[in-house]
Amino acid sequence: MKFFVPARLALFVPSLCLTSICFAEPLELDPSVITGSRSASPSFDLPYSVDSINQAQISDGQLGINASEVLSRVPGLVVQNRQNYAQDLQISSRGFGARSAFGVRGIKLIADGIPASTPDGQGQAATFNLDTAERIEVLRGPAATLYGSNAGGVIQMFSRDGEGPPRIGAETLIGSDGMSKNHLTAEGSANDVGFVLDASRMDTDGYRDHSAARRDQTFAKLNFKPDEDSKLALIYSSLEQNGTQDPLGQSWEAYKADPRSVAPNAITYNTRKSIDHQQLGLNYERYFGDATLQVNAYTGTRSVIQYLAIPKSAAGNKQGGGVVQFDRKFYGGSLRWLQPVYSAPGDLTLIAGLDFDQSQDSRHGYQNFVGNQLGVKGALVRDEVDTARSLDPYAQANWAIDNWTVQAGLRYSTMEMDVDDQFVTSTNGDDSGTKRYEKATPSISVMYAFTPELHGYVSAGKGFETPTQAELAYTKGNNGFNFGLKPAESTQYEMGLKAQFNNTRINAAVFQITTEDELAVLENDQGRAIYQNAGRTLRRGFELGVESQLSEHWTTTLAYTRLQATYDSDFSSSKGTVDKGNYLPGVPQTTLFAEVNWKPADWVSTAVEGMYRSKVYVEDTNSKKAAPAYSVFNWRARFEQKVEHWTFHQTLRLDNLLDRQYVGSVIVADGNDRFYEAAPGRSWYAGAGAQYSF
C-alpha cells in the first residue's frame, strides 16, 4: 500500500462566528478528553486515536450550522455536506458509515451524554447545536467498540456550562444563495447556577434548485450543585424544519450540464421533508469519597413526514408508500461507577456501567398521489410500530504504572428490533416479527512512554454493526421485513505514535480492519432498497494529525488520511458481480485538510483553509463514473472591538475561492443512477454581532 501527499492542497471550509464571543487563542496542544477513558484525561496520554476540537475552532469564522465546518480537521473522518438539509450530513470514520444514503449510520453520535443515534445505529448530526458547543471529541479505532454496536467511531459534543458574569448577545449573518442566520444567546452564572440559553433561525434558498430550508433551533441548560458532593445539569434542545425541499441526487450528465439542477421528479412530486425534534435530559454526578457515580437520563420525541419521488405506478408506492411519516418516542439512560484502586501499584481505576436506550416509531406510509394530483398524502398503505431497544452492561479498567498505560474493556451489547404490523389485509400479510442481535465486544489498548515527549501505543478490539430499521424494511419479493440480515462483525487493530515537541503536536497511526458479513445493497427497485450481507471487507490506512504554534502570531493544522478500503470476497448484486479487490463506495482513498491562521493583533485574525479529496466510487461494481478528485480553498477574517461592557465583532469569509465545480457528496448505490450532489461555487458570507456583559 502506497501512502502519498497529493500535489494539490485543498484548503478549507471556514465560516462565521455565531456563538458567544470567542477569539483566536494560543493553540492547545494537549487538551483533556473524556471520550474513551470515561474520565477527564490528557489526550496525549491515551492509548488510541482521539481528537478534541475546542470552542475557538468551532466558532471562529464558522457558520455554526453544519458539523462539517469543523469535523474535516480530524484525520480518519470524511464529512460530506450534501447541500441538502432534508437528508443531513454524511459522516464516515475509517469507512464506517460511508454507504448511508441519508443521515448518519454506523457512527455513534452523542450530545451531553444524550445519544443522537437510535439503538439500531441511525443518527442525525443536525441535532448538534454548534452555537452552544464547548468542544467536540472524536474517537476512532478499536477503542470505539467500548461504546457498543454501530460504533465505527464516536463523535461527542459537549455544551458549555455557563460560567462567568451574565451576558447577552445577538448576531446575524447573510451570504450566498439567500443564506441568513439570526442568533440570540444568554449565558453566565448567577447565584451559583450556570445557565446557557440559545435560539437561532437559519434560512437558505439552497445552492441547487428546489433545496430551500428553514431551521429553528433552541437550547437551554441549567448547571448547579445540589450539595458539595454532587452536581446536576438539566438540558433541553429542539430542532424544527418545516417543508425542507429535497433536490435529490443528480445523474452525471445532469450534473455536468448544470450543477444546480434537480431531478424532474423532485419538482413533479414536490419532494420535501419536515422535522420536529424535542428532547430533555439530565446529567447527575455524585462523589463518594474518591469514587464517582454518574447518572444520565433522557427522553424526547421526533416527528417526521417526508414526500418521496417514487413514481405513481411503482410497486413501492402501493406497498411502502411514497409518503413516509413517523412519530418517535425515545428515552433511555446510563449508570456508571468509577472506582480508584489505591492498593494496586500505579494509578488504577475500575469502571462499571449500564446503558439502556429505546426508540419507538409509530410509522405510516401513504401513496404520494390522490387521483392525478401528485406530491400529496394519499391512501394509507403501511401502518406499523417499530421498536428498537438496547441494553449494554460494560466494564473497563484504566491503569497507568511507570511508563506504561493500559486500558481494557468488555461490553456485552444487545439490540432488539420489534415490528408490530397493523396494516393486515387480504392482499397484505402480517409482517410482524422480532429480531435480536447480541455480541461481546472486547478492546485493549497499551501505551509506552519512550520519553515524556514521545509515546507509542497498540490497540485491538472487536465490534459489530447491526442493520438499521431502514435496511431491514424490505426483502426481495416484498416478503416482509428482512430479518435474515446478520450484523457486520469487525476485528480492528491500530498502532500509533504521539509526539509533543516544543509547540508542535504530532499524532500518527496505522490501522487494519477486517469485516465479516458487510452490509451492502442487493438491489434498488421501484423506490425500495433491499440489503444483503456481502461477505468480507479489508481496510488498511494511515492517519497523520499535526498542530503547531509556529510563532506568537501563526498557527497551522494538518490532517491527512490514506485509506485503502476494498471488498475481500466476491458477491453478487442486481448490478452484477462485485469482485474481490473492488473499492468500497463512498470512501475516498486520500483526504487532506490544512489550515494556516494569522493573528497579528488582539483585534484581528485571518486564516486560509484547504481540502483535497481523491475520487470516490459510487457503487459496488466500480463501473459507474466515480466522483472526481477535487481541491478547494477558503478564506476568513474576524475583527473584534471592546468598549466597556460591550464586545463587537465582524466576520468575513469566502468559500471555494477558485470557484471550482465539483461533486461535494455522493449517494451510494442510488437506484436511479443519481449518485452525485454538486457543491456550491464561490460563496461569500458576512456577519456581525454584539455582546453585553453585566
CATH superfamily descriptor: TonB-dependent receptor, beta-barrel domain
Assign a percent range to the helix content.
Answer: under 10%
CATH architecture level-2 label: Beta Barrel
What is the total domain count?
A: 1
Distance between the termini: 59 Å
**Class derived from helix and strand content:** mainly beta
Rounded Rg: 24 Å
> Segments where pLDDT lies below 50 for 5+ residues?
1-24
Q: What characterizes the major β-sheet?
A: 22 strands, antiparallel, barrel
Q: In percent, how much strand structure appears in the residues?
A: over 45%
CATH class: Mainly Beta
Q: Could you please say which CATH topology applies here?
A: Maltoporin, Chain A
Task: Describe the model.
The chain has 694 residues and is mostly beta strands. It has a single domain (32-693), classed as Beta Barrel (Maltoporin, Chain A), CATH 2.40.170. It contains six helices and 41 strands. A hairpin with an 8-residue loop joins strand 14 (193-204) and strand 15. The longest helix has 6 residues, at 252-257. It is globular and about 65 Å long. The protein starts with 31 loop residues before the first strand and ends with a strand. Residues 1-24 have low confidence and may be disordered.
